[in-house]
Amino acid sequence: MEAQLPLNTEGKPIQCKAAVCRDSGEPLVIEDVVVAPPMSGEARIRIICTSLCHSDLTFWKAKGPRGLFPRILGHEAVGVVESVGEDVSEVKKGDMVIPVFMAECLECVDCKSKKSNLCSNVPFRMSGFMPRHESSRFTDLSGETIHHFLFVSSFSQYTVVDVVHLTKISDPSSLPPNRACLLSCGVSTGVGAAWKTAEVEAGSTVAIFGLGSIGLAVAEGARLCGAAKIIGVDLNPQKFEIGKKFGLTDFVNPGECGDKPVSQVIKEMTDGGADYCFECVGMASLVHEAYASCRKGWGKTIVVGVDQLGSNLTFSSGEVLTSGKCIMGSLFGGLKPKSHIPILLKRYIDKELQLDDFVTHEMELEDINRAFDLLQAGQCLRCVIWMDKKF
Ligand code: NAD
Ligand code: ZN
């Protein structure tokens, strides 16, 4: 991929197009923004492709403490480094990089442990600013500050990302940008949830609640781990046909279960409960259903979906005690971005991991609101947005 970066922008503000979310649920506005040069520990990135994830929809609609506007959303992307701030040696101008909402500082106890991807030096949190300097690099043409999103903000032709959130792709020719962006959030999250968080074993049974890109990537991950039965649960019956490409073997439509709870249907299909259940929608009631669908003794329920703020789970302590089941959360599929994205990339190059079928639509930045409509209506998996069109 040729990086056509404009000359002599280093150290200067760049004016470019971005899709700005001005208020909760309002169509994004394509407007000129000013992107300040990177500060120490940061890199300014020219975004090549970005794709839309359900988490963007959640924060686009958010009101209250999660609704921070104006804001530049987008967190699934790939780009090229335009310039770097002081003390940055890990990436340089022209490098192809994948930004990820999770950091990997490589130094803290968690980054050094095999058991966790929750960096302690730069912990996951909701913020409208850069992680290291607690300030924004975006302003609009009237000088008003625009907030960041998940430390990525990729719905802009240029963005600034802290180097702890960047993974360098050493051989850019191995991965087209409209596939690379999928490794930045959705596909990595789903595959990682099966591979790293659940550690799905060959021959096991899996149930996945919600068959968007995340749920289907869980299926793909479970398939790669050798699962024998992969049951998808979705209200949209079209998802079964689509899901077969990613290894789904069975399908349950909650609307067609009559009086039986979905968990009862899954227990019957798996002779007592699935070994691994994944919630990939973001609803407490589905987490309970997933937990109820798990096998006693060793069943694991993995929470992947992002629920409304303040939502709670309630379990009977007696049931937790006697069932022996476990429930775990999984951010970015338990993956450490810098360590594990290259492994997924290798599996894509080796034609083991599928990325192509996740991309159902491709469009230009000016059509981004159509991508929001398609994802809300359940009519797409991933819409890839190409950012480099000259306006
Ligand atoms: P999506 O909108 O593409 O897919 C959601 C799917 O859930 C759709 O197929 C829909 O039909 C189905 N669904 C909705 N309600 C349902 C119900 N009651 N029962 C069964 N199925 C139902 O979303 P996505 O991009 O795949 O994201 C899925 C979830 O994962 C979101 O909550 C998103 O925020 C979250 N997410 C989490 C992480 C993480 O790190 N943990 C990363 C990315 C996304
Ligand atoms: Zn995401």
From TrEMBL:
Gene Ontology MF terms in the entry: alcohol dehydrogenase (NAD+) activity; S-(hydroxymethyl)glutathione dehydrogenase [NAD(P)+] activity; zinc ion binding
One Pfam family cited in the UniProt record for this chain: ADH_N
Keyword line: Metal-binding, NAD, Oxidoreductase, Zinc
Enzyme class: oxidoreductase
Annotated catalysed reactions: a secondary alcohol + NAD(+) = a ketone + NADH + H(+); a primary alcohol + NAD(+) = an aldehyde + NADH + H(+)
Keyword Secreted (UniProt): no
Limits of the Alcohol dehydrogenase-like N-terminal domain: 41-170
Names of the cofactor(s): Zn(2+)
InterPro entries found in the cross-reference section: ADH-like_C, ADH-like_N, ADH_Zn_CS, GroES-like_sf, NAD(P)-bd_dom_sf
GO terms under cellular component: cytosol
Ranges where the Alcohol dehydrogenase-like C-terminal domain occurs: 214-338
Enzyme Commission number(s): 1.1.1.1
A Gene Ontology biological process term: formaldehyde catabolic process
Quaternary assembly: Homodimer.
Family indicated by similarity: Belongs to the zinc-containing alcohol dehydrogenase family. Class-III subfamily.
Protein name: alcohol dehydrogenase
Lineage: Eukaryota, Viridiplantae, Streptophyta, Embryophyta, Tracheophyta
